[in-house]
Write a sequence for this structure.
């Protein structure tokens, strides 16, 4: 696909906004939960890739209405692996550390809206330049 | 440079052919010495003197220039690293959290100097600059594996672990 | 516990997409309006207008020098030449800093987009990213990003049907700190030893392949799309009088929350270390914070409330550098720290000029002598004199700034140098009799059996036998052991 001109780019962007709107504003056209896993050098060093893999496994096994996306460094190196959970209608929430062994109870808590992992919350909102 | 085998017979011939093809396909060979050396090190693990001659010959430049570049950049090894190449991060974040004692512990136990290989060829130890995992300082890597918050005792355990692994094989 | 622990002091411009999008999927970058800044300049701006916008924003180079980016682009644009080049400096040499790596791993497209914008502004069709070979993940994500951008026609010929061509290639470094210096970097790009050249001529006149070249840092580039999209007035509204926008810092060392922070210029170090960083780890006392890496210096308690920008940080005896920020606690030995940095610089000195090659080595030797208790009081004068000589006579920034860690610590912590020079430094452990509860833990762990005492009675260390291993210090439950 070649994007021929500026207008075509803007049109493409519009069709893709729903891919990311949940992350910024908690908005979504469906109720799928989105889980972002920080996959940068420091994350890899403590097994964030295994965390991501385990989450994928759980989603498949349990048929959870969720998807998982690998992203870059979230900045909280002391709490790696860090995970951002985006639930439609709620503020994005950052958890850490969430290791592969913790994934089963973690997913249980997230999908059932339980508070067992609230002591792993790092932050609930960010201030950033939105273009 | 002592006696150098310029027939290149002690080097893997398939890898040499691959390196030659890579060099011949370069768009700007005169600028590409560093990229060629990266490729050479990837193929052979290190860049001994006669491999440097090989590169010089095929890039049509002096061997002195090749050696000048190899010895300038710390990423290039002239000596074959150990089977388990241990890197201790000596970036500032790791240093202030005790990386220097970890490094000394390893060198003392293995009875080698920094940058060298144990007699049995099993271990080599080097110091590297920040690998970007400062949150886990002090950090030690063995190949691709990263160990964080390493203490002197853990460093010794790491040696034992790999030695055990080697003996099992 | 639903806490909002981190106050909203951070504001992310350069890191706006890091951790928010999948860096290996260009669609997600497009979804957050990626490449629209490029679209905007190609369809609405003249190259001169791009230069003007960046000048008006007052963006300054984040690689350490703080040179105005718009001016650098203008100087390069002004040259007439058949070829010009854009170079992204991703060598990130400061050990203990990882801002640029995080941007490249988390948001590679923003750097590619900005390089294309810079190319349009100065009249260049070719960009190179010079990246450290030690960053394999960043390299692979950049590679993926370049391929994706090409397949969408966002790099290559006739971008957005505007007639503008731009392509980018990756070039690997090979582990040499000096290659972060722009003229050394250009030599390395040409397959040579990474030795710097005398300036002038500046790269904007004669750079890569002898052609006009603009070298900019990764973080500098990451700011560009945001400035184009939101306008220079927006960017100018953030920061201090002379330093606009934000700065990314890699906060590490003896601090609780090690990580990457992006704060507006003018934030104080106290806010960064305590409010964002969560204070000093293990309940220790703050001693100093080191900024600017091997070229910088230490900042102590009395200056923690200074709003940080390029100018103010110089005034308090350090420099901004590229953003490494290492927190030091009461246990840090400042003379050893200087020795650590000089070991680094003498090792990384390229050897081309004598003051740096030999001077840094001699400085290191003096520090080594001192810490081995073999120094003399005269060594302190020698250290200072030689430091000034090396600063004044070295060819490039490496040598010119290498003595900074010494000068800064000798100024703030002279007593620590004197303790070594007059050999009054205590090198053994001892026990505070008032605190000791006689639990015997220390005497049991002592490897040389030099701690004696009855149970429930204060213990004593035989200081002539003590090897300063610190085992007793770690074993003591009541903090009765006094460190050397
Ligand atoms: C010894 C030395 C090391 C340097 N290392 C880096 C570096 O790692 N990254 C960087 O961007 N700039 C580094 N610089 C600064 C560059 O020379 C150059 O000023 C910078 O890349 C320009 O980009 P900017 O204007 O966007 O900051 C270094 C300078 C010196 C003297
Ligand atoms: S200083 Fe060791 S990983 Fe950064």
């Amino acid at each position: 696909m070649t994007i021929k001109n500026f207008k075509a780019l803007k049109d493409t962007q519009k069709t893709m906004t729903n891919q990311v709107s949940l992350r910024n504003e908690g908005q979504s056209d469906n109720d799928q939960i989105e889980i972002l896993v920080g996959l940068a050098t420091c994350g890899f060093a403590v097994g964030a890739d295994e965390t991501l893999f385990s989450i994928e496994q759980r989603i498949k096994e349990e048929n959870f209405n969720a998807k998982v996306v690998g992203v870059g460094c979230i900045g909280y190196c002391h709490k790696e692996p860090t995970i951002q959970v985006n639930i439609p209608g709620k503020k994005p929430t950052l958890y850490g550390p969430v290791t592969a062994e913790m994934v089963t109870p973690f997913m249980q808590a997230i999908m059932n809206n339980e508070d067992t992992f609230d002591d792993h919350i790092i932050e609930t909102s960010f201030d950033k330049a939105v273009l | 440079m002592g006696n150098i085998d310029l027939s290149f017979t002690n080097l893997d011939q398939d890898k040499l052919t691959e390196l030659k093809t890579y060099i011949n396909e370069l768009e700007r060979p005169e600028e590409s010495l560093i990229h060629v050396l990266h490729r050479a090190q990837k193929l052979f693990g290190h860049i001994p003197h006669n491999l440097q001659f090989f590169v010089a010959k095929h890039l049509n430049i002096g061997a002195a220039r090749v050696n000048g570049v190899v010895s300038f950049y710390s990423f290039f090894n002239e000596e074959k690293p150990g089977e388990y190449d241990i890197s201790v991060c000596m970036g500032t974040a790791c240093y202030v959290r005790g990386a220097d004692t970890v490094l000394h512990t390893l060198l003392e136990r293995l009875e080698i100097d920094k940058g060298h290989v144990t007699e049995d060829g099993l271990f080599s130890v080097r110091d590297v600059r920040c690998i970007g995992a400062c949150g886990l300082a002090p950090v030690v890597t063995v190949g691709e594996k990263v160990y964080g918050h390493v203490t002197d005792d853990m460093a010794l355990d790491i040696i034992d672990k790999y030695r055990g692994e080697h003996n099992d094989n | 516990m639903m806490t909002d622990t981190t106050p909203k002091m951070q504001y992310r411009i350069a890191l706006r997409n890091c951790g928010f999008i999948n860096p290996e999927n260009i669609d997600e970058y497009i979804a957050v309006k990626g490449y629209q800044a490029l679209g905007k300049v190609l369809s609405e701006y003249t190259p001169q207008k791009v230069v003007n916008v960046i000048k008006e924003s007052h963006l300054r180079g984040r690689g350490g020098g703080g040179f105005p980016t718009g001016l650098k682009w203008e100087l390069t644009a002004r040259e007439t030449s058949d070829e010009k080049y854009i170079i992204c400096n991703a060598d990130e040499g400061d050990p203990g800093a990882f801002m640029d790596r995080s941007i490249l791993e988390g948001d590679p497209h923003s750097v590619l987009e900005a390089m294309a914008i810079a190319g349009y502004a100065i009249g260049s069709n070719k960009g190179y990213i010079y990246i450290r070979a030690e960053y394999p993940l960043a390299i692979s994500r950049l590679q993926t990003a370049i391929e994706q951008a090409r397949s969408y026609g966002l790099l290559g010929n006739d971008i957005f049907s505007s007639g503008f061509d731009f392509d980018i290639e990756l070039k690997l470094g090979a582990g040499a700190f000096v290659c972060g210096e722009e003229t050394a970097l250009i030599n390395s790009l040409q397959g040579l030893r990474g030795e710097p050249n005398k300036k002038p001529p500046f790269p904007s006149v004669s750079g890569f392949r002898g052609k006009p070249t603009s070298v900019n840092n990764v973080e500098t580039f990451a700011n560009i799309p945001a400035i184009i999209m939101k306008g220079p007035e927006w960017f100018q509204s953030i920061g201090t009088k002379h330093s606009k926008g934000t700065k990314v810092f890699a906060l590490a060392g003896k601090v609780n929350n090690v990580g990457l922070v992006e704060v507006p210029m003018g934030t104080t170090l106290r806010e960064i270390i305590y409010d964002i960083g969560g204070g000093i780890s293990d309940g220790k006392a703050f001693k100093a914070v080191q900024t600017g890496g091997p070229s910088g210096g230490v900042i102590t308690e009395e200056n923690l409330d200074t709003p940080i920008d390029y100018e103010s940080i110089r005034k308090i005896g350090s420099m901004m550098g590229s953003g490494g920020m290492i927190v030091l606690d009461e246990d840090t030995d400042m003379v050893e720290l200087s020795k650590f940095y000089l070991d680094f610089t003498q090792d990384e000195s390229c050897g081309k000029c004598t003051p740096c090659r030999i001077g840094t080595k001699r400085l290191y030797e003096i520090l080594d002598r001192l810490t081995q208790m073999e120094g003399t009081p005269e060594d302190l004068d020698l250290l200072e004199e030689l430091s000034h000589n090396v600063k004044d006579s070295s060819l490039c920034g490496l040598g010119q700034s290498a003595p900074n860690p010494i000068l800064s610590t000798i100024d703030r912590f002279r007593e620590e140098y004197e303790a070594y020079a007059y050999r009054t430094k205590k090198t053994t452990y001892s026990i505070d009799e008032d605190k000791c509860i006689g639990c015997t833990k220390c005497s049991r762990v002592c490897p040389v059996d030099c701690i004696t005492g009855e149970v429930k009675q204060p213990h004593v260390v035989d200081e002539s036998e003590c090897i300063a291993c610190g085992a007793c210090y770690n074993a003591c439950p009541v903090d009765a052991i006094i460190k050397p």
Summary: Residues B 89, 91-94, 130-134, 137, 139; C 95-96 surround FE2/S2 (inorganic) cluster (ligand 2) (CB under 6 Å).
